[in-house]
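Appendix C: a fully annotated inverse folding record. The material below is reproduced so that readers can follow the format used throughout the book. The structure is listed first as tokens, followed by the designed sequence.
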């Protein structure tokens, strides 16, 4: 019987929707992430949990040599096709974020966008990212978040929508994790994106069992930080760090 907590189940089912999602392709957090990284033409980049490959495509368009990793084979196929269609070559490797199959000091840049809440071991991912970065290499991460007061509520809600959701972190938790791994020049940027309940659920249908259960919980006693009237407030954190020699 399939394990619905395995991200490969969820994203294998919905990979096409994520590939065509306007928010994933053009969301404001992508621009903020890349601007903060200050990427340069000719640098090498690893996009971890690449999903639909939208971050990888933008990196390639900026002249970087791009490698992508993901645990879902269908996502890797979609990403390779997307970049090849744009005239770019990409190395695609099926790999877990917590166990990256590259030698120490391989990449100038490591990115991970809208995916870390699916990881079983965020510190393990950060250790691996730190390891595969060159000296002076930079990491850039974007993910959903909530305040420490409401992060448990958000995680329960997201697990109702998507059983493969593991755990989103609060800003304080992210900062502490980055510091503990050894990153320097850490910066955090918080942003909000208002959307309808249906937009938040997508690609899960409002008529599905998971969708109905999530909406019921959402409308019971939601904190103002996350729900205002009939509007869902998606809070995102974008962060950067540097591996110093």
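Designed amino acids, in order:
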């Amino acid at each position: 019987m399939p394990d619905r907590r395995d991200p490969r189940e969820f994203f294998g089912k919905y990979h096409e929707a994520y590939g065509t999602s306007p928010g994933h392709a053009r969301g404001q957090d992508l621009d903020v992430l890349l601007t903060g990284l200050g990427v340069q033409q000719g640098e090498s980049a690893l996009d971890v949990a690449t999903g639909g490959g939208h971050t990888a495509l933008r990196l390639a368009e900026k002249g970087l040599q791009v490698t992508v990793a993901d645990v879902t084979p269908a996502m890797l196929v979609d990403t390779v096709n997307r970049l090849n269609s744009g005239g770019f070559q990409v190395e695609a490797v099926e790999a877990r974020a917590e166990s990256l199959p590259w030698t120490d000091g391989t990449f100038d840049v490591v990115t991970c966008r809208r995916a870390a809440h699916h990881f079983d071991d965020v510190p393990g991912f950060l250790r691996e990212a730190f390891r595969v970065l060159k000296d002076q290499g930079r990491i850039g991460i974007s993910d959903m978040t909530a305040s420490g007061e409401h992060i448990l509520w958000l995680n329960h809600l997201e697990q109702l929508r998507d059983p493969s959701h593991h755990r989103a972190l609060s800003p304080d938790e992210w900062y502490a994790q980055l510091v503990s791994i050894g990153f320097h020049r850490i910066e955090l940027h918080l942003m909000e994106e208002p959307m309808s309940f249906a937009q938040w659920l997508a690609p899960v249908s409002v008529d599905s069992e998971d969708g109905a259960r999530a909406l019921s919980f959402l409308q019971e006693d939601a904190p103002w930080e996350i729900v205002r009237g009939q509007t869902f407030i998606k809070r995102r954190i974008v962060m950067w760090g540097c591996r110093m020699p």
